[in-house]
Amino acid sequence: MKGVDVFREITPLTQADCFLLFDRNKKRFDFPVHRHKEMELNLILNAAGAKRVIGDHSAEVSDSELVLTGPGLKHGWLNHHCKSDQIREITIQFHEDILGEAMLNRDHLNAIKIMFQASVKGIVFLSETINEVSSQIVALSGKSGFDSVVGFLKILHQLSLSPYKCLCDAEFVEKDIVEEVLIEKALSFINEHYQQQLTFTETAKAVNLPDDLFSRMLKRSTGLTFNDCLARIRLGHVSRLLIENNYPVGEIAYRCGFNNLTNFHRIFKLKKLCTPKQFREKYSGNRLAVY
């Protein structure tokens, strides 16, 4: 879809996690169209009139919405004609290899394997399926540990056996694949070293690019400068710690690479449109890992 800026998100999902779940009540869609290397299942309720953007597809949605997106596929929801101020969004992010290649090749999981393969084009589920599984997804928000993993796998299994529709045209392919790989590598490097006082030159060197070329590629691919990318990644980890822990805000800021608290509060309020305390009170989420 042309005319929509795409933000490249690096999620707070780690290799130790099975998946991450975020349960949000919101008045409007304020997160840009974006993409990330993880798969994502999105349940959206009370959002009639909003616009769904998945790859080269866009459409106005009804009151409820359930979409599965594959790795690297751009996606997002825009307010468009949505009048509701009681939107509920439950987002589940998980690794593409959550079940592993050996497991997916078992006969009993063949339907999930086929669904995962189709997700590269984006999948929307029918209203009948949403009615059947939405309560399970909502209930998953209150689970943790092994029970949460079992619950999530049951949801994936049920979805794989349900009818669904692929959203992107079969010929749709993202452009500039080589550049995408290099920028993904750069952003992964930043994500690995965000707690340090990382420099632009160090990052360019990590992907074997001259400073000026790296700067142009980064701006062209993400629309952001290096400092903006670093700040966004740090804020992603700050957001996760605010949701999951009761650490003091100052300690969280320091853990995530912000050494100047005044600057941290300014950046946080500018990007999140609220204070860290307000963010903590507004959002709930669980770090759901295999134990």
UniProtKB/TrEMBL annotation:
Source organism phylogeny: Bacteria, Pseudomonadati, Bacteroidota, Sphingobacteriia, Sphingobacteriales
PROSITE patterns, per the entry: HTH_ARAC_FAMILY_2
This protein's name: Helix-turn-helix domain-containing protein
Keyword Amino-acid biosynthesis: no
Keywords: DNA-binding, Transcription, Transcription regulation
GO molecular function: DNA-binding transcription factor activity; sequence-specific DNA binding
Domain HTH araC/xylS-type, chain residue ranges per copy: 184-282
Pfam families: HTH_18 (PF12833)
InterPro entries: Homeodomain-like_sf, HTH_AraC
